[in-house]
Structure formats: C-alpha cells, structure tokens
Amino acid sequence: MFTPHGPVRRAARPAPGWNGVPPADAMAAEPPADASYRSDNTGPLPWVATSRSGTINGFHRLQYGKAPKISPLWIVSLATCLLLGGLGTPVAAQEYRQLQPKITKRATRISLEMTTKDVLRGKVDFQEGKRSIDAYYVKYFFPTMTRYAPSDLENLADYREDLLEALRDSTVPTAQKYLTGLALKACWSLARGDYHPAVRYNAALILGLLDQRYAQVANSPVPLAKATDALLQIIERDTFQMRDKKVPVPTSTKVAAWLGLERHARFGMDSKYAPRVASAALATIEDQQPDTEVEPAVQHWMQCLVAGVLAYQFSDGPPPQIQAALMGLISADRLSLDDRCRVAKLVSRIEYATAEVPDGQAAVLALGALTQDVMHDENQASQEFESSRRNDSDAPYPRHRLLSRLSSIYTCGTTLVDGLAEKPQQNIEALLSALDPVINVLENKKSSDTDVTNSVIRQKPAVDQVVAPWKLAGENSVAAPEAGG
Fold first, then answer.
1. Residue range 418-425: average pLDDT?
2. What does the alpha-carbon distance between residue 229 and residue 9 come to, in Å, rounded to a whole number?
3. 465 exposed, middle or buried (CB, 10 Å; 0-12, 13-18, 19+)?
4. 204, 257 Cβ separation under 8 angstroms
5. CB 224, CB 178: distance < 8 Å
6. What is the per-residue pLDDT across 329-349, written as a single tens digit (0 to 9) for each?
7. Which residue, of 51, 325, 369, 469, has the fewest CB within 10 Å?
8. Residue 61 to residues 28, 76, 108, 259, 264: CA-CA distances in angstroms?
9. Mean pLDDT of the chain
10. Does residue 50 have a pLDDT over 50?
C-alpha cells in the first residue's frame, strides 16, 4: 500500500509499478509514430535500415558510450524526425555532394584495413602504420560514407558501428587518439556540408560518440570536448558557410546533435560549455514557432529530448530559469500528455536533496495541472471503456499507459519533495495520496479492467479537490499586484 510516511520519507519509496527495478528510461521512447514529414515521400525511408549486428535501441546505446544500432522501430521513428532534404521535396529528387574514394581496388582496401586494425591493437608500430590509417580512413572510409544511393544509405549504421568499434577496441592510446582526431575532422565537415540528410545525421551521431577516454569495464567514458563544441555549433547555427555557399542545418542534424549532447551531459561534459548548453536548450524549449521541416509532434518530442539534456547537465540542482523551463514543459498544453509525463519523469535525474527547488509553488502547480489533465483524460477513457463493455466489446483497458503516466507523476513528485518547503511538501503528499487508490488497484494482479476504471472515476474528483485550492492561490498571487496598483 502507498500511504504517506511524512513529507520527506515518501521520496525514498519506489514509484508504482517498479518492483524495485526502474522501468526503461523515458527518453528511450521513440518519436511519435503518427508524426510525419512535410514531404512528398511516403512509407519507410529506404536509407533507414537495421544494422547488421542487432536491434538495440539507438538511445540505449548512446547512454553507454557505444555506437547506436537502429532497430526496426526506428524505420518508422527516424522517418518521423529526419529532414528529407527540403520542404515538400523527395530526397531522391535532389542532388547532394558526395566524395569519391581514392582507393578503389578491393585487395588494396582489405590490406589497408587489416594493417589499420593491427596498428590500433599494437601489433604494428604506430609510426610505421600511421600512413595506413590515413590511407584507409581518409581515402576510403569517410568518402564512402557520403554516398547516398539506397544501398549505400542502408550501410550507414554499420559504418558508424565499425568506426566506434575500432576506437573502443584500440589498445594503443596514441593510435586511438589519432583516429579520434581524424573522425572529428571528417564528421565535422560532413555534418556541415551539402551532403544527404542521412549522411549528415550519421556524422553528427558519430561526433556525439567520440570520447577523450572510451568506456572500459571499470571506467565510464569521458566525452571529447572538441566534439561537444561541434555539436553546440550545429545546434546554435542555422547555416554554415561551406566554400562558396551557405548550407542550411536541417532539423535532423540538430536532432542528432542533441542526442550527442544528452550523452555528453550524462557522462560529464566540460563545465565551460554549460552556459552554451543552457542557452541553446532554453531557446529550443521556448521556441513555439512551428518547425516547417517536421510535424508539431516531432518538434515536441525534440523538446523533451532537450529537457533530458538539462536534467543531466543540472542534476545537482537547476538555476531558476532552467527549473522554470522544465516545469513549463510539464504544464504545457501544446505537448501531448505522454510528452508532459516524459518530462516529469526526467526530473527524477535531479538531486533536489542538495538544492532547494526554485519557485516551489510553480513546481506544485505544474505537477498538479499535469495530474488533473491525466486523470481527466483517463476518466473519459474509463467511461468510454465501460460504455463499450456494455456493448459487448472485448478490447482491454490500456492499463500500461495509465501506470506509465502515474509512475511519471509519482517519480516527479517524490523527487521534488526533497527540495520543497514544508507547505509545498504537504501539497505534493496530498496529491500522491489521491493517486494511491488507483495505483494500488493497478498493482493488484487480480484486479480487473473494470476495477481500474472504477478507481479512476472515483479518484478524479479527489484529485480535483486537492489541486483546486492551489490554482486559486496561484491566480490570487498573480492578481494581487494588480489589485494593489
């Protein structure tokens, strides 16, 4: 049973449904499958393919410093969040720059590849094999990554994985550092240049995976500071001057850059970049202008991704402006309920026990508004479900959705409690207590769908009764200066 144990103690209990093991990270969720490009293309993109070695979610791989592999779900997901090279214009109809490999003989390529691997593993002296590394990567590998025929684009994930595997498996620090430098230079150029959007996306992903120290069994990775700077420039700028033309930065490349920055923030980026990260993140979150390249659902998903960067970057306690941005997303009507819940769950990354919650009243109001909206939506769904059951429908109630939403609210509330003053703590406790009857039914394996829907219908008024005074107090606090004037 989930019952209050005091204003702070409650924060120590696991969120509902966890059973001591947290569910998958909220940001591992895919972009909305029903979102689409403003493009003439239909169906899955030919260049979004599963890598040859697995179907592990790209975000999960990014978290652990490994090359992301694209799962079958990403065939749909990336189609919803990558720019297709121009507004309303199919990718295939455009011409993009591509580099021609100078090494064309298969035997020569294989020989260089084998020598390069031996150099990276210490079987060949670095100084003796350095020219082979240059020849293989600069004259063959990186140019090959710029091709954009469907068969070439299908191999992009594998090229990325091969490069990161070579870097991670290297036992020669000098050779590893040298290849990292080559990759940084090449991918920085590809991400900015007039190449196919998938090529640029792939290059930006690689930038986010380059490290000063790569992950080992006993050590976490240390992200490469120069790569952090490159990712920030991709996000900060709308165009790059490349030779004699300005090249726009598509939303897809910015998405890849934010994925990389989330990884850098997770493992610890150079503190000198924190102000730029905060500025870029706030600009992205506060931008409510429609993105002409993607549908609103994808733009909102990207803002949730950015919120994750902030939660990691300011995990020791966010400054007021960052806190306000996170709470603003939680209460933002323009976002879907599930996106708002996703942001609420991200707040659990922040250690409020070591820092007060800036503007505790705003945090309480934001979480209260989200809880009311969730219960309103689930109440409507519950009534519709009961009506359909009377019409002999066998469709089950989406219990997982309800549990996921309430878990996010519960996790956010128990995290905020540690940094709130006594009165806001009590408000959060009252809110979570109003959810307990629904949570208890959800966690009871013997409960029926009707038990769940009845608990939702019963508890919605209880949630409204808890939150209503907060809203009134908040409205009065805003109106008071006007009345005094």
1. 91
2. 41
3. exposed
4. yes
5. no
6. 999 999 999 999 999 999 999
7. 469
8. 10, 18, 33, 11, 13
9. 81
10. no
- Termini Cα distance of the chain: 50
Tokens of 143: 């140019």
Q: Is 197 in contact with 247 (CB distance < 8 Å)?
A: no
For 125-174, write each residue's pLDDT tens digit.
999 999 999 999 999 999 999 999 999 999 999 999 999 999 999 999 99
Please name every residue paired with 242 in a beta bridge, in sequence order, or none if there are none. 245
Q: Which residue has the higher pLDDT, 6 or 313?
A: 313
Residues facing 240 on adjacent strands: 247
| CA atoms of 221 and 260, how far apart (whole Å) | 13
Q: How big is the chain by its Cα radius of gyration, in Å?
A: 25
Tokens linked to 282: 């706030």
8 Å CB contact between 223 and 268: yes
- For residues 310 and 350, is the Cβ–Cβ distance under 8 A? no
Q: Grade residue 296 by pLDDT with cuts at 50, 70 and 90.
A: confident
| H, E, C per residue of the chain | CCCCCCCCHHHHCCCCCCCCCCCCCHHHCCCCCCCCECCCCCCCCCCCCCCCCCCCCHHHHHHCCCCCCCCHHHHHHHHHHCCCCCCCCCHHHCCCCCCCCCCCCHHHHHHHHHHHHHHHCCCCCHHHHHHHHHHHHHHHHHHHCCCCCHHHHCCHHHHHHHHHHHHHHCCCHHHHHHHHHHHHHHHHHHHHCCCCHHHHHHHHHHHHHCEEECCCCCCCCEECHHHHHHHHHHHHCCEEEECCEEEECCHHHHHHHHHHHHHHHHHCCCHHHHHHHHHHHHHHHHCCCCCCCECHHHHHHHHHHHHHHHHHHCCCCCCHHHHHHHHHHHCCCCCCHHHHHHHHHHHHHCCHHHCCCCCHHHHHHHHHHHHHHHHHHHHHHHHHHHHHHHCCCCCCCCHHHHHHHHHHHHHHHHHHHCCCCHHHHHHHHHHHHHHHHHHHHHHCCCCCHHHHHHHHHHHHHHHHHHHHHHHHHHHHHHHHHHHHC
H or E segment and range at residue 68: none
Handedness of CA 69, 110, 99, 119 (dihedral sign): positive
Q: Residue 62: what are its φ and ψ, rounded to 5°?
A: -60, -35
Query: CA-CA distances (angstroms) from residue 92 to 101, 197, 256, 345, 391?
Result: 22, 11, 21, 39, 49
Take residue 55 and report the two structure tokens written for it: 């179907």
The per-residue pLDDT for range 350-394, each reduced to its tens digit, is 998 777 888 889 999 999 999 999 999 999 999 999 998 877 778
Q: How many degrees, rounded to 5, is the angle at CA 363 between CA 357 and CA 364? A: 120
* Per-residue pLDDT at 105 exceeds 90: yes
Residue 417 banded pLDDT, cuts 50, 70, 90: very high
